[in-house]
Amino acid sequence: xxxxxxxxxxxxxxxxxxxxxxxxxxxxxxxxxxxxxxxxxxxxxxxxxxxxxxxxxxxxxxxxxxxxxxxxxxxxxxxxxxxxxxxxxxxxxxxxxxxxxxxxxxxxxxxxxxxxxxxxxxxxxxxxxxxxxxxxxxxxxxxxxxxxxxxxxxxxxxxxxxxxxxxxxxxxxxxxxxxxxxxxxxxxxxxxxxxxxxxxxxxxxxxxxxxxxxxxxxxxxxxxxxxxxxxxxxxxxxxxxxxxxxxxxxxxxxxxxxxxxxxxxxxxxxxxxxxxxxxxxxxxxxxxxxx
Length: 291
Ligand code: SAM
Hints:
This protein is α/β, with parallel strands linked by helices and about 290 residues long. The protein has helices at about 35-45, 55-60, 80-90, 110-120, 130-140, 155-165, 185-195, 215-225, 245-255, 260-270, 275-285; strands spanning about 5-10, 10-15, 20-25, 50, 70, 95-100, 125, 145-150, 175-180, 200-205, 210-215, 230-235. Helix 6 (about 155-165) links the parallel strand 8 (about 145-150) and strand 9 (about 175-180). The structure holds S-adenosylmethionine. S-adenosylmethionine binds near residues 131, 132, 178 and 202.
């Protein structure tokens, strides 16, 4: 049994021993101040801390002068590590599970461990805190009464479009994680498959360069052609806006009897897609011989 301690601004606190069982502990998503007192107590008082990246977690623990027995629990080594952690739990030890940032299991490892720990009769304790999905939803300005978290979409365009189609009928704000180099393509695909819905891009939450941009998917796709940092994408529920395939059909119809500028204005009025985007699209449809 470990009696640990932690230090905040030079003041030392005794943590006591963590209760036996698996503690699923949320850690900050950027700002180190976003760790909870219970998280610090649990991490300092646990017999072992199972971490996705022991060096990364080691730095977080060092910021609070916590000494811990760190064991690795990442996607690759999980199958080998799980029995060892379950054995510790069976022996009455306390193990804290953390990921690199935010809440374990939320697009992070831990699901099988929690399931098998429960199945084995071990106690599983929640030590909640930050999660980028919830932080983003809380500041996005999009409807928050119902939301659907879908994590990362497939990296390749075909898989991504299929996944978006499966999400298209859900009457809730969609919450997605995305890598910066795929953001623009993902937003453009979302506009094409879901219709040009209102959306938000929440970047670097709780960090120095935190920003939240809101707009139509197509406009955000253009605005974020080159971007860095950590990103949550939120897409408003369906509002009856036409998917891009329908927009193309409407543009072609309009181009049969008017110029690109007038066609763009008319279809913008009908669909809510920005006129500038439609004008460019109308010109390329004309080039393809569509108008
Ligand atoms: N378990 C974490 C949680 O609860 O938020 C998420 C882990 S997932 C592997 C990492 C992704 O979360 C990033 O690629 C990004 O999409 C999102 N994310 C994490 N920190 C963020 C932040 N500070 N601002 C915006 N998005 C963030």
